[in-house]
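Question:
Write out your own:
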Amino acid sequence: MKKRKLGNTGFKISEIAFGGVGIGMPYAGQKMPEELDSIHLLEKALDGGINFYDTARMYGRSEEMLGKAFKDKREKVVINTKCVHFLDQDGKIPAKRELVKIIHKSLENSLKALQTDYIDVYMLHQSSLDILKNEDIIDIFSHLKNKGTIRAIGASTYLPEETDYCINSGVWDVVQVPFNLMDQRQQVLFKAAVDNGVGLIVRSVLFRGMLTGRSLNYHKELEKVKEHIQRFNSLIGQDIPDMITLATKFVLSYPPVSSVLIGMDQMKHLDKALQIADGKYYPQTLLGILEGMAFPEPEFLNLPQWDRKGWLKN
């Protein structure tokens, strides 16, 4: 497993990141594994060369599983976790005193669950331009970083304008973005991330399972998405054995990407990720073809909104 620089943080992380939501709570219709199976999976991932682990306070028991697996191997892993959501019932950012209380309590609970006294990368789980620009939030996160409890700070973003602000703000060390064969909007910001020393983590590589090649039950409103995804089947063959390989290697082929986050809750997921991450990625000619196959209406590709509308059945 090759390692890549995480911006200017000083961390060198595996180009595959272990996505920990599925070992902490039922996700995307999948059953959560038993505790011992989760711990074994995490240990095997480390044995396979994966040293970067993504989790969050809101991922059920995920942090707890990482804590149990790595409490005696803490120096061998780089852990990225995320703060709880903190907007109030009206969707507004609380006053600073309340923010301090919420963020500090969330961090305290994460440290306890992870059985550690520091966090490598601590992220905002809920981002918007208002949140990213909020001086109180910036001050709280920066203070925790200067104190040493957090080694680097970052944000999980959805929209390119949020990512753009993070990269150019001079505040956030790492940004986690959605990027895949279908939705390639964030790619225009990759060079700026490198130029500004911001680590780039990519999630949603398999687009909530729609880029796995599995037969899925699509909602009628997503028929055009289904038809577009089927176009990628024309590229499957001897050199590209399946859709998962195509989707994952596509993202790994961009040098600015520090790590590709793959959700894992079964050994077969880990085995497949280790098989794909062989250091042999796509030439510019193929990347050009794939870039030309992006979905023509990327603004429609809104997974959280689809979830709220009940369009995601798998």
The beta strands are 3-5, 12-14, 16-19, 52-54, 78-82, 119-124, 150-156, 174-178, 199-203, 259-263.
